[in-house]
Task: structure prediction
Amino acid sequence: MSEKYPEYADPQLRPRYLGLPTFMRAPYAEDLANVDIAMVGVPFDGGVTNRPGARHGPREVRNQSSLIRTFNPATGVNPFELCRVADVGDAWAEEPYELTQAHHQIQEWYERLNATGARPLSVGGDHSITLPILRALAADGPVGMIHIDAHADTGGDYMGSKFHHGSPFRNAVLEGLLDPKRVCQIGIRGSMNDPALWDFSYESGMRVIRMEEFTDMGWAAAIADAREVVGDMPTYVSFDIDALDPVYAPGTGTPEAGGITMIEAQRMIRELSGLNIVGADVVEVSPPFDVSGLTAMHGATVMYEILCVMAEAVAEAK
Result:
């Protein structure tokens, strides 16, 4: 406690090199009874198909998120004033070497969180973690989703498993967790070995905005499409950091050239204000492949922008 600077009684206002790293220097809470938005790390990358390392994502995003201040001048939102926000630690798998069991343990963690009424904002981990999160959040009925990614992640079996980071949303639809007609996927691109790899997205009724269409229509029209698709019903937001061009996010498992810029990502997320966002995640930050913490810093920034629109949704619901 500083007698000279009484404002430093708030740890979030102290110099950013101080203190233990939590997401955005928010308070750490194990008791979720008084939490509206729970920021969660999911340090699991047992579902990757190529470059590993996303298990280290939550720790490095926490570290880089010390750069984030409280007030968003672009939107006029201070999420920490609108609702009760806390870092609630990690949803970690006790058996990380057995994929389906690890997913089950992550699901159980989120079921306990969901029972408190707090809305989760998660950091992975690979994209396979979204399936167990949705199993917990959508247990009472399917939700819509805005999915920003280089890959549609609606593939099938890969080397003997249907549970991997290229398949969570196919499985989520088949399990009745996602309403595919309320799903919009933005930024899809990259080479494929199988031209039919993402056919499930189209055949199930998802709105898919490939990167070529995105660049032609512009970010504002793309996110307007997404808002129309999801409507005012419960919606999940999933942001894979490889949606960004590799110049902004080299530290990820499956980078794809020709991606979204950081300012486009920020402005799209800001346009989600007013939606009924019940949960969100930022995934696939892989620090071993990062450059000077750049990808983790951008992951923390995306997380903050999502937090701002989630806080508005929580305040509106109160």
